[in-house]
Amino acid sequence: MKIAGIGSNGRSGQLIVKEAVQRGLDVTGVARKENKSIAPKFIQKDLFDLTKEDFKGFDVVIDAFAAWTEDTLELHTKSLMKLADLLSNTKTRLIVVGGAGSLYVNPEHTLTLLETPDFPDIFKPVAIATGNSLEALRKRNDVRWTYISPPADFQAEGARTGEYILAGEEFTLNSKGVSAMSYADFAIATIDEAVKGNNIQKRISVLGK
Questions:
Q1: Which CATH number fits domain 2-208: 3.40.50.720, 3.40.50.150, 3.20.20.70, 3.30.390.50?
Q2: 3-state secondary structure of 95
Q3: Domain boundary assignment for the chain
């Protein structure tokens, strides 16, 4: 299986690449600056300069693009639509590392985690931006996309346990009443979805056990 990892120099992207390489997959990292991951192959390009030719022959493209500052938040949707355009009407899957704020907290799917009173103000701009990108992606019936939401407590330095819970559109807690997960375990879940998942044009979510 040939996998391209967008944002492979980022904290999440590096671990996703590492997980894929350790499983013996054919992995190519993609980032603006020199390769900081263990990807054996690398495309050094700005995301917005990528072409259809760059993705020719890939089975899966994993998008771990991230933007945090106010002036770059709109790039969540713009970059995702750029990738969707490049993969439009192809067999190549697009797996997106998403956000947790857009997960629903009621069975009717009318209220999101972002809209609850206790959602931290500091994370609201990013949550709104990633939520907007999901809504834009939902309109793309021409792309074999899967959007993966992490838990509320997404731990960059957390331990790799090798276990996780696969959930759906609704905000989920584990048996301890917690929504948490390490980046390393998220990488496992992401590559599992790439290799054996079939959640085409669906949003799923994952969290630690």
A1: 3.40.50.720
A2: strand
A3: 2-208
Report pLDDT for 68. Answer: 82
Work out the burial of residue 192: count CB atoms within 10 Å of its CB; fewer than 13 is exposed, 13-18 middle, 19 or more buried: middle
The number of residues in the chain equals 209
Q: Is 7 helix (H, G, I), strand (E, B) or coil?
A: coil
Residues 6+ apart with CB under 8 A from 115: none
pLDDT on residue 69:
87
Do 116 and 105 meet the contact criterion of CB atoms below 8 Å apart?
A: yes
Residue 191 phi/psi, 5-degree rounding, is -70, -35
Contacts of 47 (CB under 8 A, 6+ apart): 6, 7, 30, 32, 65, 79, 82, 83
| Residues 20 and 191 sit within 8 Å (Cβ to Cβ) | yes
pLDDT, tens digit (0-9, with 9 covering 90-100), for 121-176: 999 999 999 999 999 999 999 999 999 999 999 999 999 999 999 999 999 999 99
Give the model confidence (pLDDT) of 23-71 as tens digits.
999 999 999 999 999 999 999 999 999 999 999 999 999 999 998 888 8
Q: Which of 43, 25, 29 is nearest to 192 (CA)?
A: 25
CA 20-55-94 angle, 5° bins: 60
